[in-house]
Amino acid sequence: MIVLLRDNEITENTPLGGNIDVDRLRQCIIDAQITRLEELLGEDLYDKICNEYDAETLEGDYLTLYENYIKPFLIRQGALEFLKIGAFTIGNNGIALPTPANTSAIDSKMLSNLVSEMRAKADMFAERMYRWLCKKNLPEWRCSSDNVVNPNKPSFGNWFLQNEYIDEDLYVRSILNKQNETK
Description:
Elements: H1 9-13, H2 22-41, H3 43-54, H4 60-85, E1 89-91, E2 94-96, H5 108-136, E3 158-161, E4 164-167, H6 168-181
Antiparallel strand pairs: 1-2, 3-4
């Protein structure tokens, strides 16, 4: 899988600290690419950007799209994905909320606020990208019955659990509240 950001671009451009595990952050970038970016660009344009980025041959409107729209969007969306899962560790013993010495975990409302703020920024960059794409009308940015992923499909930030939809923020908040109740 081609990752469209360098490992340090999120920590250099967001409040996320520089000592975050790169592998966990890279997975969040990949999630952002698959779940949001490919949906915004559509399969053809997404593949073209990934292939030319990997070959270091992006130029013209495609370079502008990457530098001015994709990169700022992915930085915020990748940070958003990390904020949703970064506090948790998953291992053989299950899912845990570790708290290093001399620190305390933030409450669920503060986490929800952070997630909401980062989501607003990612959505702002997504909207800018969409408006730029509408102006430029790149040939790869179109719907095709041959594509698995076409541009402009709505993106939903909800999970389906136990026969009901649960908003991501509410789900994370409920996990944190349960953790605090057991202390």
